[in-house]
TrEMBL record:
Keywords: Cytoplasm, Membrane, Signal transduction inhibitor. GO terms for cellular component: cytoplasm; membrane. It holds the Pfam family RGS. Inhibits signal transduction by increasing the GTPase activity of G protein alpha subunits thereby driving them into their inactive GDP-bound form. Binds to G(i)-alpha and G(o)-alpha, but not to G(s)-alpha. SUPFAM superfamilies: Regulator of G-protein signaling, RGS. InterPro entries: RGS, RGS_RGS5, RGS_sf, RGS_subdom1/3, RGS_subdomain_2. It is found in: Cytoplasm; Membrane. This is Regulator of G-protein signaling 5. Gene3D superfamilies: 1.10.196.10, Regulator of G-protein Signalling 4, domain 2 (1.10.167.10). GO terms for biological process: negative regulation of signal transduction. Residues 64-180 form the RGS domain.
Length: 181
C-alpha cells in the first residue's frame, strides 16, 4: 500500500504501482505449454525452393519491407541475413507479434503476451528489442489487459527500425543479390 502523502503528491506513482502489480499478476500465470506456442528456430532454415521469387518480384523488396515480409521466401531470407549479423531479435519480435495478433483465445493471448514480454520487452530480456522508454511503458500498460493491439506501438517502432536500418543492408547483401540475378 502506498503512503498517503506520496499518492496525493504523485498520483501517477500510485497508478504506476497499480499497473506494476497487475502486470506482475499477469506474468505469474502458469507456463503450461508456453514454449510450444511461439517456436523460435535456433538454426537458419533454407528458404523453400518451390517459392523462390522471380528477380522482378525480389526487386520490389528494395523499396518495401512490407512486401518482403509478406513473402515467405523473402521473410526467411531476411531472417537468415539478420541471423548472420547476430541481429535477428527484431524480425523474431515482429513475427511473434504477427502470430500474437492472430490469437483468438484470451488464455493463449495472455500466455503469448507473457512470453513476448519476457523474451523481447523486459529490461535484460534474452532478445531485448531496442525500443524507447515511452514505447516500453505504453506496452507494459497495454499488457495489464492483453488485447490484439497490445504490442502495436512496439511492433511499429521495430518495423521502422528494420526498414531504415536492416533493409538497406539486406539489399546490399549476397543473400539479396543472388535473388535479383
Amino acid at each position: 500500500r502506498c503512503h498517503p502523502c506520496l499518492t496525493s503528491s504523485f498520483p501517477s506513482l500510485h497508478r504506476a504501482k497499480e499497473i506494476k502489480t497487475k502486470l506482475g499478476t499477469l506474468l505469474q500465470k502458469p507456463d503450461s505449454a508456453i514454449d510450444l506456442i511461439i517456436p523460435y528456430p535456433e538454426k537458419a532454415e533454407k528458404p523453400p525452393k518451390a517459392h523462390k521469387p522471380s528477380p522482378e518480384e525480389a526487386l520490389q523488396w528494395r523499396d518495401s519491407l512490407e512486401k518482403l515480409l509478406q513473402n515467405t521466401y523473402g521473410l526467411t531470407s531476411f531472417s537468415n541475413f539478420l541471423r548472420s549479423e547476430f541481429s535477428e531479435e527484431n524480425i523474431e519480435f515482429w513475427v511473434a507479434c504477427e502470430d500474437y495478433k492472430r490469437t483468438k483465445s484470451p488464455v493463449k493471448m495472455a500466455e503469448k503476451a507473457k512470453k513476448i514480454y519476457e523474451e523481447f520487452i523486459q529490461t535484460e530480456a534474452p532478445k531485448e528489442v531496442n525500443i524507447d522508454h515511452f514505447t516500453k511503458a505504453v506496452t507494459m500498460k497495454n499488457l495489464v489487459e492483453p488485447s490484439a493491439s497490445s504490442f502495436d506501438m512496439a511492433q511499429k517502432r521495430i518495423f521502422a527500425l528494420m526498414e531504415k536500418d536492416s533493409l538497406p543492408r539486406f539489399v546490399r547483401s549476397e543473400f539479396y543479390q543472388e535473388l535479383v540475378k
